[in-house]
């Protein structure tokens, strides 16, 4: 019995689709960062503020009512993300992107994740549909702002919430993470660019997402207009599973390297 981790079984039909693809479009969610140690949105801790769900905290209202709590929660998540590494799932997509580009093909990545693990794996990301936790701007005037990422350890946000810094430009507004909160519109150009990539693809991968958050979750379905094969990679079934042609039920960190072999 070798100690090599067993390569998950991928049906030949799916392997052939991956080998034949020239223009792959990837739609990723929190599940692809789970094996790096980034809790998925459904799992992420709100610590002392457990009376709030992640979805409650990720709103402009929560920031206006409780700026210290929301600010500190995002700083804690940023420090957690800074402390982890891309996993074989991120790395496989970066390698596949390079391989296709070197033979005149394309692989585009549109992610719902606010982390920078795709980029740190060496991939170019087409769109961060829900923004980036490492970028900041003023909640009032929109001016960009620079914040260093603190080093928090511990599985919970720190108990003493800190207040968000004041904008250096308008000296009125509070600095916030440049993420898209619930009730806020997605950056239109990112949305349009992703829709274009989904329509132009000859293979679409839906990786590590519950497909619960709109309007992003409707983007991969744009491929159906042209009968583009849709492959889901997720240990569990999701809102999108019924629309998929193939479902690889396993962790992205194992399935993606196997799919590229
Ligand atoms: C929850 C849902 C019902 N609500 C919405 O969708 C709302 C409201 C809404 C709009 N249209 C609708 C239509 C129907 C119903 C509701 C709506 N949408 C909005 O508010 C959007 C904005 C939504 C964006 C919210 N921001 C996020 N993130 C940034 C912040 C932050 O991160 O803090 S969403 C956030 O949650 C989402 C979580 O989803 P997933 O990534 O899928 O993660 P999840 O935890 O759910 O699942 C993990 C999956 O991974 C799998 N997995 C686990 N381990 C692995 C593994 N190892 N490998 C592979 N897979 C794995 C699991 O099985 C699971 O399936 C991500 O997108 C993430 O970015 N804005 C808007 O509509 O604005 C309008 C508007 C228009 C014009 C003008 C004004 C307003």
TrEMBL record:
<keyword id="KW-0520">NAD</keyword>
<protein>
    <recommendedName>
        <fullName>NAD-dependent protein deacylase</fullName>
        <ecNumber>2.3.1.286</ecNumber>
    </recommendedName>
</protein>
<feature type="binding site">
    <location>
        <position position="138"/>
    </location>
    <ligand>
        <name>Zn(2+)</name>
    </ligand>
</feature>
<feature type="binding site">
    <location>
        <position position="77"/>
    </location>
    <ligand>
        <name>substrate</name>
    </ligand>
</feature>
<feature type="binding site">
    <location>
        <position position="141"/>
    </location>
    <ligand>
        <name>Zn(2+)</name>
    </ligand>
</feature>
<feature type="binding site">
    <location>
        <begin position="208"/>
        <end position="210"/>
    </location>
    <ligand>
        <name>NAD(+)</name>
    </ligand>
</feature>
<feature type="binding site">
    <location>
        <position position="167"/>
    </location>
    <ligand>
        <name>Zn(2+)</name>
    </ligand>
</feature>
<comment type="similarity">
    <text>Belongs to the sirtuin family. Class III subfamily.</text>
</comment>
<dbReference type="InterPro" id="IPR050134">
    <property type="entry name" value="NAD-dep_sirtuin_deacylases"/>
</dbReference>
<dbReference type="GO" id="GO:0016787">
    <property type="term" value="F:hydrolase activity"/>
</dbReference>
<feature type="binding site">
    <location>
        <position position="252"/>
    </location>
    <ligand>
        <name>NAD(+)</name>
    </ligand>
</feature>
<feature type="binding site">
    <location>
        <begin position="234"/>
        <end position="236"/>
    </location>
    <ligand>
        <name>NAD(+)</name>
    </ligand>
</feature>
<dbReference type="InterPro" id="IPR026591">
    <property type="entry name" value="Sirtuin_cat_small_dom_sf"/>
</dbReference>
<keyword id="KW-0479">Metal-binding</keyword>
<keyword id="KW-0862">Zinc</keyword>
<feature type="active site" description="Proton acceptor">
    <location>
        <position position="130"/>
    </location>
</feature>
<dbReference type="Pfam" id="PF02146">
    <property type="entry name" value="SIR2"/>
</dbReference>
<dbReference type="InterPro" id="IPR029035">
    <property type="entry name" value="DHS-like_NAD/FAD-binding_dom"/>
</dbReference>
<feature type="domain" description="Deacetylase sirtuin-type">
    <location>
        <begin position="4"/>
        <end position="261"/>
    </location>
</feature>
<dbReference type="InterPro" id="IPR003000">
    <property type="entry name" value="Sirtuin"/>
</dbReference>
<feature type="binding site">
    <location>
        <position position="74"/>
    </location>
    <ligand>
        <name>substrate</name>
    </ligand>
</feature>
<keyword id="KW-0378">Hydrolase</keyword>
<keyword id="KW-0963">Cytoplasm</keyword>
<feature type="binding site">
    <location>
        <begin position="112"/>
        <end position="115"/>
    </location>
    <ligand>
        <name>NAD(+)</name>
    </ligand>
</feature>
<dbReference type="InterPro" id="IPR026590">
    <property type="entry name" value="Ssirtuin_cat_dom"/>
</dbReference>
<feature type="binding site">
    <location>
        <position position="170"/>
    </location>
    <ligand>
        <name>Zn(2+)</name>
    </ligand>
</feature>
<dbReference type="InterPro" id="IPR027546">
    <property type="entry name" value="Sirtuin_class_III"/>
</dbReference>
<comment type="function">
    <text>NAD-dependent lysine deacetylase and desuccinylase that specifically removes acetyl and succinyl groups on target proteins. Modulates the activities of several proteins which are inactive in their acylated form.</text>
</comment>
<keyword id="KW-0808">Transferase</keyword>
